[in-house]
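PPM-type phosphatase domain-containing protein
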Amino acid sequence: MVYAAALTDPGRKRALNEDAVAQLVTPYGGIFIVADGMGGHRTGEVASQMAVDRILGMLRQSEPSPQALLEAYEAANEAIYLAGQKPESRGMGTTCTTLWLDLPYALIAHVGDSRAYLLRDGEFTQLTQDHSWVADRVRQGLLTEEEARSHRWRNVITNALGSFPAARVDLVGLKVRPGDVFLLCSDGLSGVLEDRVLSEMILTNPPEPAVAKLIKLANDWGGPDNISAVVVTIGSQVPERSRPYALPLETSPGQPVRLQSGTDLEVLTTQVSEPPPPASFWQRWGSVILLLLWFGLLGFVLFNQFGSSSGP
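Predicted structure tokens:
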């Protein structure tokens, strides 16, 4: 049901590869991770590997759920943050994007500017929102996508695992369809190749040659940064089964549902998303009836008071 490949490369300009990737296909789907470390002096390499190891280790022992995914990110954030308090490790952190397939659902956790994309029925969609200075300006309408791609501050990250004592995580969920293709990548790929090239590569190639060709193309275009790609293709059949968080995700069939960080995920994932019952007659017209009665009573009082005094 799931075919996947992961590959990372230092690129043409960097001596060290501070990216890390992981893939684990499971009976229920799989776990796929891309992390892009920062901090220099090997601390970026350490941070990205810590994130991948901690998150993968926790998820493989957990029942899939948004809560378990958030807890894994919080544990990774705490470990990296504490490691970064050493003088030689100041500034260490990492982006991290995880796809947790629990077929027929996909859960995605995201911090930083590594990305998750979905190719479905020929449409290529970015599922994550970059946590970066230029991405914020694009969303504010102050920069265009083209300007952001070449801006001198395009590598300034506004959120990373290990940068703050508490994790700030975006969670995305959607229902998977047969033939869906997911791409996870670091900005060493998405910052070099346009979306149309990314989509063409994963549309026309199985996962293993797709990741190899993507990295080769990024290197052919200069390879200015470390490059990582994970491609996950869903087979022709997707099991239909219920999950504890199924109903909220099915409120928008086929569309990603963004689960905001900081909400009560236990409540969110167990609530029943049924349409509200139709309003009763009193719910629809009660306030109008009360208002009419009030005016009627007021008119009656005024008539009795002034109507009687104006008589013969």
